[in-house]
Structure formats: structure tokens, C-alpha cells
Fold this sequence. Notes:
Radius of gyration: 26 Å
Number of helices: 16
Shape: globular
Oligomer: single chain
Strand order of the largest sheet: 1-2-3-4-6-8-11-12
Helix content: 25-40%
Distance between the termini: 33 Å
Amino acid sequence: MLERTCFQTGKPWSPRTDLRSDVAIAYGIDTNLPARIATWRDQGYRVHVMTGAAWGEYQDYLYGRFDGTNHEDEAQTDREGHKIGHGGDVYYMSPGINYGKFLCVGVQRALDAGAEAIHLEEPEFWDRAGYSEGFKREWKAYYHEDWQAPDSSVDARWRAGKLKYYLYRRALQQVFDFVQSYNQRTGRHVRCYVPTHSLLNYAQWCVVSPESSLAKLNGCDGYIAQVWTGTSREPNRYQGEVRSRTFETAFLEYGAMQNLVRATGRSVWYLNDPIEDNPNHDWTDYRENWQSTLTASLFQPDVSQYEVAPWPERIFNGRYPRSAAPEDRQPIPPAYATELQLVFNSLTDMKQPHVEWDCGTIGIGVMVSDSLMFQRGQPTPSDPYLGNVYGLAMPLVMHGLPVAPVQLENVAVPHYLDNFHVLFLSYDGQKPLSPEVHPPLADWVKRGGVLVFCDADADPYLKVRDWWNSDGKNYVTPRQHLFDLLGLDDSLAPDEFHPVGSGGVVWLRHRPVDFSISADGADQIIAAAKLAAAHAGLTWRESNYLLLRRGPYVIASGLDESFDAPAHTLHGRFVDLFDADLKVRNDISIMPGTRWFLLDLDAASTGKTHLLASACKALPQEQTDKHISFSVEGVEDTPAIMLLESPTAPTTVTLDGNPLSTFEYSDKDKLLWIHFENKAQPQQVSVNF
Length: 689
């Protein structure tokens, strides 16, 4: 059975949360878990289990009932001595040596109940933490020196970040080893995933998490990219203006997550959330931002697995404000319920062999390192708006270039850089965690890549104790080590192309944050990208939109802070999967701020009767020249729509044998629309010709 879509829930099965995805992820490892799993498996779902890696109802560990040792001093603690938590005695943990072993107790419960995969979500260590006695012990054991307050110096802050990064990697490896041992004993193949926010979001929210290092651990099968409105509406700065840019930020967040696994053999699922954690936005806001994040996720054609909703119970049973009356809380609008199910079902068809971009130049990346998370706290935090990344990436996105955040730690993975021709890199706000990343990067340049290095050598964190100034190395900055391998030195003239082998280097001697504070800064990045692209043999193209074809699907987004140009228009026959009525559209104008998830009817046409889209799970049952039938299921009491290509008009349409009058046929377009009410239990739709 395929695993293309999933959702997570802490509740047993119910007709209003029956999304008919391939996988239901049961959340929490309490004693009720086996009973909850059974309710979903009885409805035909594959079942995974998810639990929190950093916090949960873990009082047995906290108070010593697990191993006879009190672990309250492992609660993450800030400089004032306050424990950081979720209320009561549910704390974020600074994981000691036995913490991962404790998590294995709950994981065993999931394994005994038949879970097919384990998800350990959000291994998060707050930047403001690092003052607990447990953390001090770990510091002594890891560094063989006395603890230093993380805010006492940039060196202490850096070392605290590296230790936090290690501690959750250690805890998760304990769980991965436990599951691998279970698999060896039983002959099963239970997989392990880590649902996590993107590196960009964790860095901006001042959280340290193991991120890319997990893909190198034995037993880690991949990630769920926890990108949604709540993360992507976080403001950043472009051309001096600080504001939310939900689509563009989500585009970069999803790209960062895909580049955690590309060429590693691991996989990633993309999460979308039709609402978000804040319950006080209105339905219009939720819908617009969900469309932005969903569209952004579809611009990564190598990813075709999706978590379509966390907590479907809060979507289909929750009540949220209407835009016209904030105090008036209403259930989900029927049209939105239909639209969601149209998209959920279409996401099962995203693994398409034909992919084609039609926008700005492709093959350009901006390199990011997990060490972005280590420079976010006092005494000298990096830019609050993460301008050291967005100052380089956002101008490229706004000019229609589908730029990708490229994980620096992965450059030694074979073929990882094969599809990139131009890379932007800075060691301002981040540092290479190992000298081992530099030889493959230098080799990439010598084989024809162009590196645009953006740095003024002004970051205070250049002085921290690490590999570039230790063990016989005396570099002022890790850039000098890279330049040595490239045959370059500090006398390199700025803003010019310097050949190295078949490729070359351009050095912009500015701090990358500077490029985010004015229009001139953004223009400098575009000029450098043009120069690099020309020397890399790329044809330069800009657009005020992004557009990608994935088989018969067209994904498009207008960029509302791009350059002035006429709106790009598509001509043909399309239905918009964000339209609950699935009306045929012949002209699509990609205006600034618009999001499109289109089905190209001509590309999808077979000349035979078949299903094109549906706001229900529709499984074909029988088909002859005169008849076609489907078994249909959906979220209880929501409006369903099915769209079929049909060369001839139907004579009758029935639902469970009863005549349906709620259908329309277009002889011009050879399309049949069928409307009915969804039920969680299977119904039979039959069409006769």
C-alpha cells in the first residue's frame, strides 16, 4: 500500500476526522495508544505513531519513577532560573544520558500495538536555556571544562549551541538503535522519522535542533517538514521593509527541508496546515495563508509525500472567527471543506515524471549551515530577521528565480551539488562545522561552478574556539581555509569574477544583512547573480512569478514585491483546485499575490471517461462503454464534488442506487460534475451513458 498522504491526531477515529489519507499518525504514547491505533486500523489506515522528543507527559522520568533518579534538574532553564515548559510540570528537557532510554519505553508500547513507523517530533533546545544543573554536567562531560554561562561570551554561546545540538542527536540515536534492534529481533521494518521545523525557522525562533546531522544517523529514515502559516508568516526584511511574506518564506523553508535529504537516501514529507496554532485568526486568513504555504510546497518537484493536516479535529470540528465578525465563531465554511478535500486527494498524484520550470533561471542556491542556530543569543546575537540568509535569498526569489537553500553539511554527499551552477555563501551568522566541507566545495568550483562569497570578515563569532583556529590551524576566518584550497587569498579584488579551474569566485565584501536593508542591496545581489550565471554558462532570465509544471498540474505564484512587468497569462483549459466549484478557466493571469494549483485539462485528457479531481476518496469499481462506478468516502457531512472527463453525456447518475439530479455536463468541454454529501462510510456513485 502506498504512503502518499498522512495526518496526525491525538483522537480515535471519527466520521468528521476521516480524511481518507493513506496513513493516520496517532499522537502520544500514553496507555490509551493501542486502543486509538485500533480504531484507525479498523478503518483501513496504515498507522504510524508520533510523540514529542523534547517534551510531553514525562513525569515518570522527571521524578525518578523510571530509573530511580530524579531528573528535575534536566528541565531546560533560563538565566533567571525559570524552567521552560508547556504549563504545569511539562517541561522542555535537557536530555541526560537516560532520556532517550526513557522514550524507548513509550516507543515499545507503539511497537507492540503494531505501529509501522515512529515519529519523534521537534527535538528542540531553546537558545535562552542552558542554565540547569543537568546541562552544566553535560558541559563538563563534553568539553572537559567547567560550565560557562551561555550569555557570558560569544565563545560560550557557540559552545552551548554545539552541545545542545549534540544532546538531542544522542537521545534520538538511542531511540533509533532501539527500533533497529527490535526490527532485527522480529523481522519487521519499522521506520523512524523526525518531524521538525526548518532550519530557517528554528534559527529565527532561537531554537537549536539536530537538523541535518540526523540524516547521518543509523536508523533515521527521514523527516516531516513542519512548515505552516505559523512559521512562514514570521516577518523578515527585504529592501528595508520588515513584514510577513508567507509564500516566499515558505518557499525557502520547504526548499531547506528538501535539501536536508536530497541525495542522502532519506525522504521528507511536507506538512500543510489549513489553519494554525493561533485560534484567533479568521477563516479567510487561514485559507489565504494555507494556499500560500501549500503552493510553496508544490514547487519542490522531488517531494511527493504530504502531511495534509495536523489535528483534523480542530479543522473540521473547530470554530473560528468570520472576517466580518471577529466575535462570531463559526465552523468551517462548506466551500473550504470541499476545497481542502479536493487538494488532499490531488496530492496523492504529485509523483510525476515530467517536470518543467517556466520562470527565472534555475540552478542557483544559497548555502546554509546548522550553525545558524548557534549565534542567536546574547551577548552578540545575529540579525533578528535572519538577514544573513534572507538578504541573499529573498532578492533572487523576488526576481522569479527558484533558488534553493543548500545544506553546507551535505556537500560531501556524492552528487549533492550536481544540479547547482551558482552558489551564494557567507560565514557571517553561520560557520562551517568541519573543514571537511571545503574540499568538495572547492572541487565543485574547479569543475565549473561559480561561488559568490558574501562576507566582510566582521562577525564576532569568527573568534570562537573551533577547527579553523585550533590544532595547528591559525586562520582568522574559515573563509581563508576555503580560499587556500581555491588558490586565492585576501588580496582578491571584490565584485569581480576570478577564474578557478573551469569555474570561479566572486567576492562581495559586505555583510549579507546589509543587502536586506535597501533596494540597492537587493540590486547588488541580482547583479552578482547575473555575473556568476554568465560565467557558469547559464541563460539569465527573470520573472515576476514562479511557475512549475508537474505532469498535468501547473503550480504558479505571483510575486507581489517583484519588478514591474505585465502579468504572465496562461491560455488553455484549466480548473483551479483551490476552487470548490472546479469551474473551467481559459485564461489564467498570474497577478502579484495570487496562488494557483491548476489541472491542465488538455494535458490530463485521455479521450475516455475517467476521474480528474474529487473532494472525496473515489476508488474506481466497474467500467464499461456504458457505465462507470466509484466507491466514495469523505469527511462526514461536507459537500463533495467529482469532476470526470466524459466523451458523452450521462443518462443517469445514482448514489447508492438512488437517482442524483445534482450533476452538470458540458458538451463543449466533455466534462461531468457530480455533487453530493460526503459520508465517512463508503457510498456508490454510478454513471450510466
